[in-house]
């Protein structure tokens, strides 16, 4: 009898790309059905706080709040390297110290870094798809764009600050990629199964990445992607690439830096290290001896 495992992911291009190798049947797991739910990232963050899904995409900044109930997965990660979310405003405007800003969610990584850099800003939270219009309509003075919006925003807008630049400044010269999002898995899942699910997701991301020229047109053809083919290609270069398959040592170091910044700014009660909250694969190696 098949077990159904719920997987929450965002509808942006990199999450869909990394998951759909499973959806299209390129990667499968015996006696397991993965059921996907596509929702915006802050909705997924909130759902993870409530323990809604078995496996879920999250903003990395959320993880310290859910560490006791969810293990951090090593795969399907998005990091920025010289790029990332953008703080935008109307052209030729000057922002006051207490400017109104739209962010994509309280628990997003960009919100954490923004709050550290702009402590006096007045924050409104809204769906990331509505932020550009809110700035254009004057509802807010500025907004932080994420996902594909960083490539497609109106020519009436300009970048006030790159979140990447805020990250670099906060890292004090350390050369680290910007941790944006990853996935977590419910701790109540038996360890043997958890290892299998993580390995299946690692394989799915790897297969998708290696077969990008086949998978990307399929996603476009089915209307699953909000952008055109050239924009999708550029976006996947940024966020669904070789570095998304399995976290590296430098990515762990960057993630720990994010947690440290959040702790020092009073965002988190405890200082944690990412490596302490992974699924212990050595368990499987010991069982097979």
UniProtKB/TrEMBL annotation:
What is the protein name for this chain?
1,4-dihydroxy-6-naphtoate synthase
Indicate yes or no for the key word Lyase.
Answer: yes
PANTHER family in the cross-refs: 1,4-DIHYDROXY-6-NAPHTOATE SYNTHASE
Checking SUPFAM superfamilies in the record gives: Periplasmic binding protein-like II (SSF53850)
Q: What gene name is listed for this protein?
A: mqnD
MF annotations from Gene Ontology = carbon-carbon lyase activity; ligase activity
GO biological process: one example: menaquinone biosynthetic process
Per the UniProt record, the source organism is Aliarcobacter vitoriensis
Please provide the record's keywords in A-Z order.
Ligase, Lyase, Menaquinone biosynthesis
Catalytic machinery residues: 147 (proton acceptor)
Source organism superkingdom = Bacteria
Q: Which reactions are catalysed by this chain?
A: cyclic dehypoxanthinylfutalosinate = 1,4-dihydroxy-6-naphthoate + dihydroxyacetone
Q: What does this protein do?
A: Catalyzes the conversion of cyclic dehypoxanthine futalosine (cyclic DHFL) into 1,4-dihydroxy-6-naphthoate, a step in the biosynthesis of menaquinone (MK, vitamin K2).
Its pathway, per UniProt, is: Quinol/quinone metabolism; menaquinone biosynthesis
Q: What is its EC number?
A: 4.1.99.29
Q: Which family does it belong to?
A: Belongs to the MqnA/MqnD family. MqnD subfamily.
